[in-house]
Amino acid sequence: MRALPWLVLCSSGCAMMLPAVNPMVSVDDDFKGKAKCLVVFLPGVGDIATDFEDKGFVDAMRDRRLSVDVVSAQATLAYYANGTMVKRLGEDVLEPTRTSHYRQTWLIGLSMGGLGTLLYAHDHPNQITGVLALAPFLGTHPVAAKIRAEGGLAQWKAPEKVVVADEDSTILELWRWLQALTSGRERGPRLYLGWGTEDTMLSESNEVLATALPMRRKFPVPGGHKWTTWKQALDQFLDDSDFRQGCGR
Predict the structure, then answer these.
(1) Are the C-beta atoms of residues 112 and 138 closer than 8 Å to each other?
(2) What are the Cα distances from residue 1, in Å, to 52, 87, 88, 214?
(3) Is residue 249 part of a domain?
(4) How confident is the model at residue 178 (pLDDT cuts 50, 70, 90)?
(5) The domain spanning residue 171 has which CATH number?
(6) For residues 223 and 91, what is the distance between their CA atoms, to the nearest angstrom?
(7) Residues 10-34: tens digit of each pLDDT
(8) Which of 8, 43, 58, 99 could form a disulfide with 47 if both were Cys (CB 3.0 to 4.6 A apart)?
(9) Which structural domain, as residue segments, surrounds residue 204?
(10) Distances in Å between the alpha carbon of 113 and those of 81, 184, 197, 199?
């Protein structure tokens, strides 16, 4: 992944952006390596790994008595900006779990982290069982509008595989891959999408992606671009997807 100057992702938290340290830091919740499934959370801009505990995401797993080990990665904006997010997530967070013999590995990310789940799955489609992208950032240039104008993701005249050189080409290649994945032309993880229907930042591009997903794979909920909205979508995902069947006790 090339370095990406996604300044639109910045909020007030960007002024104090945490550095991209090597190795990437992660926080685990009673990690034992004996559960059926591994879940890795990726934060949004201005968020940190411990927010998933503070906002009830980890408790949502505990309350349902799922057989999961939960790891929250400190995948902050700096990794996206310098192009190392996918590499560091793989080598520093996922690779150390390989000896644990999980049956399934899931990525769950919100906003910038939702984008991160898709970027990692694009580059490593055979490593990940499933992805829950919550309000994923899918670019600021008019690719989503063009896809909508052509009748949706299934009808879009996508280019051949794009050589990634900058932000625009990265997003274009991501959309091309999403079309190939959702149409079954390329293999990859099971893709689930959650978003707030009142999210003025990202609902338009999320709805474009949603048109290519079956009803059981998408969770639109009332609300804006905020944690309470994403928590509602997570709860629906945990109750109404095949994740619970595969990762239950």
Answers:
(1) no
(2) 26, 8, 11, 29
(3) no
(4) very high
(5) 3.40.50.1820
(6) 35
(7) 543 454 467 778 889 899 876 666 8
(8) 43
(9) 7-243
(10) 13, 24, 19, 16
